[in-house]
Prior knowledge:
Number of helices of chain A: 8
Number of strands of chain A: 0
Radius of gyration of chain D: 19 Å
Radius of gyration of chain A: 23 Å
Distance between the termini of chain A: 57 Å
Structural class of chain D: mainly alpha
Strand content of chain A: under 5%
Oligomer: heterotetramer
Mean pLDDT of chain D: 79
Amino acid sequence: MITTLYIFIFFIIAAALVAVETPHALSAVIALGAVGFGLSIVCLFIGAPDIAITLVVVEILVLIHMIRATLQRDIITIMGPFSRLNVIATMLIFGIGVAFFYQVALQLPPFGQAVMTLIENSPSRFYLEESLNQTGAASAITAVLLDFRAYDTLGEATVIFTAIIGALALLRRTVKRERKGKGAGDA
Amino acid sequence: MSWVFLLVALPLGGGFLLPLFDKRWAERWLPRGSEALTLALTLATAGLAFATIGWEGIYRMGGWSPPLGINLVVDGLSSLMLVVINSIALLVTIYSFKYMEDYTPTGKYYSLFLLMLAGMNGVILTGDMFNLFVFLEIASIASYALVGYRRGAVELEAAFKYLILGSIGSAFIIFGVGLLYAATGQLNMAQVSRNLAGQGRGVIGGITAAFFLVGFGLKAAQVPFHAWLPDAHSSAPSPISAILSGVLIKALGVYCLARVFFNVLGIDEIEGNILMWGGTLSMVVGALLAVGQEDLKRLLAYSSISQVGYIVLALGMGGIMLSRGEQALASLALVGALFHLINHAANKALLFLASGAIEEQAQTRQLGEMGGLFHRMPVTGTTTLCGVLSIAGIPPFAGFWSKLIIIVAALWGGFYAVATLLIATSVLTLAYYMRVEREAFFGAVPERLQKVKEAPAAMAWAMGLLAAGAVGLGVLYLPGLREMVLQPAMNVLLEGLRYAQMVLGG
Amino acid sequence: MRWAWAFVLSFGFWLLLTWPPGWQELSVGLVAAVVATTFFGRMLRLKTVRRLFDPRRYFWAICYVLVLIYRIFVANLDVAYRVLHPEMPIKPGIVKVKTVLQNEVAKTVLANSITLTPGTLSVDITDDGYLYVHWINVRAMQEEEASSYIVGRFESLLRRIFE
Amino acid sequence: MPEKEGMSLIVKEVARLIAPPIFIFGLYLTLTGHLTPGGGFPGGVVFACGFILVVLAYGGKRAFRRLPPEGASKYDSGGALLFLVIGLIGSLVGGHFLYNFIQAALPGTVFHLLSAGTMPLINIAIGMKVAACLFMVVMALTLFRLAGEKGGES
């Protein structure tokens, strides 16, 4: 079980490296798709089927869309000058990050161990034990999302809403109204 | 106080409703309907914000008590921030009517504006770490879009830069929240604070503090992380610049730093020093960079970095004094920080609105192309003069008193180097603002500006009210008023652990 | 009529998902089916629906699945032989074949079957009934001959199912 | 999509056959979110995929006549407002914003479709919203690409 999980995680890392390193845009897109599917399988392993379903659906969609986008472009290879300084700086920062994360990882609960089993007064324990009686929802996840922390969910929905309204505002066709006596609108 | 949630729910509702106002039926049946609705909602939230003064307590979302559900917390600090945010938002709305008239989808503009307001109010009110992040993202995403709203090449580049750096900041914050959850198993701020006080911070707490310093530091544009601010704040439409510089960087950056470090993690001397020296660096670097600017709005943006540096510096100084046990001195430094926060919000909003009025009427942002505008635009000239004198710290104006308090606190606390830099920066600030006055407002009117007229009434009213603030906000430090506004807010920071007690009881 | 059938089919699929149905599932399912019909009812074709009630077609469909499995099995062996053979006796190329099928669903199933069979891959399909197929070992260059090799195996059964 | 209207026949046929079941499955995920893993977010994503499949298969021009991207904005706002209104009713009835007032008044039988109070309603609201948002995101990407191809750079 845990070995399979590690195999998938290494698969994801390998696919991500391929996506970064390959010079072909299409290969990069496909490797990115492999990352996504690997991630959704990992989600299945750690017991989140709903996230896995969503991830698969989104991955298929993104893959189709990006392949269409790449196929219609003339440029199919990614070229760019490599700055050695940038690589060294990135590696340095990455190394420092890994060192810090190692320190933190030593303190974190072991993988697969739920936080609530370690901490006495954690609300997640209450959610598991009482959500059915208190909210009447059979799915504890939904009980947390839509009753205990419904305000958060409202906020998350608003984040998506804000993002799309912002995108539509930036993609609009006419920027300025025409007005007499003044300079015409730009763009 | 069962209506506190309306401070978030009303602007959210407006934000959801307004995109529908871009449709053809709305333009026919409800001309200027989006403006009217926005005005009504910002009036309502401003009223509610003033009504929270002097109240302290929590509001339970969905009826679940604190560690289980999410709760809103109103205390001195939140009501101070709410009043600042919502009153400036109201004035900016009035100003926007005229300024944004030419830009087509007004519904989307006001929708994003209200969503940003809801995000800021949510950040201020929430008592939950993850919820803080969620509302911070709402406010940030709305502001990314608003920065690029004019959609020229420069604006889009600035918005993109802001988006990238802002997202990095958010990533740091969410990492911090996740680590805090792993360490304590809690998301409720009060409960996190209580658990950390019980079990000690440990390594995770230290790393979390570092993450929060970077994340909120990015949102507050402190100096190593300030690169996005001059572009973003000068490219945004002027009312949005006023909101961004005036309140957004304070609500998402300074307030969160204060809340997290004083009430949740508990500040220690090292972090106090980081905050203080980081603030000092921002203050000096921001002022030095502002001196050479030709573009009026860029100058104001660099000045924002410098002035927020003052606030963060004073907060850090207060933290050091607190961890040394010097309560009285700490209270002075913290009052200085909060007082300067209020003053800077009013002054910088005013100056950005004035720069917008100049841009609108004279069609330029370059200082070299202006001149003698005092004769052509008397109201703008007078209000700008008030703002400039206040922000530069000239005695009877509000900005002088807050700077004085910070300098006195630094001197009494023995931070002589910081005090010297504070005074030097104030002189520098005065110098570059005097340059603005000389080049833009005094002197002879150049040929091409002969026909410039005064800004429209709505814009003038908004600027006038803010100018009154710039002149009169000094009274907040007078005894009777100080106990109403500044004192409760300062007490929240001073007695860090009382927060958990207030929320959870016992 | 089209809308009614769309409604019935959506409702049937809903029942499959929520089996066993109680009165709550049934009533919510009615609403769900109405919603689905308003969005997607337009896409349904009546001729296809009528064919759903012919038991002979189901029989031929089962036959078709068996034939397809057999074909895939044989083609697998063939491709494996070609890959493992030291000289790799392959002769890849794209051939143009004609299909007599008229029904579009039938054409789609045909193209997908060709793709599913190892060694052949349908590349494109034109409106006038031509398929472009990539073949690992092109045995016949002529259109008719190639058609009988690739398409002929499936066509008769598909016509019985769909037409 | 400008030169050829949609993709090849195969894709069109498969899209036509599979879009309605995808939609029903999205409804199922959304409506049973309080009983099984699922809920408004995955359900909405599945809805949106049904629509996007149709648009990709049939090409922008033909599909937009049936599914105008501007119309999606209506569902977007509607879903968000529905969520907010449920919360406001909770505050009027129960005194707390987002209070589960239906569960307090009429507790349904657990493990049945009509239970858990406001949760199915909120799931529907989120489903509508997420579907409309995702649809608009993809359409925004498509439209942006078209604009870029026509007008050269920027």
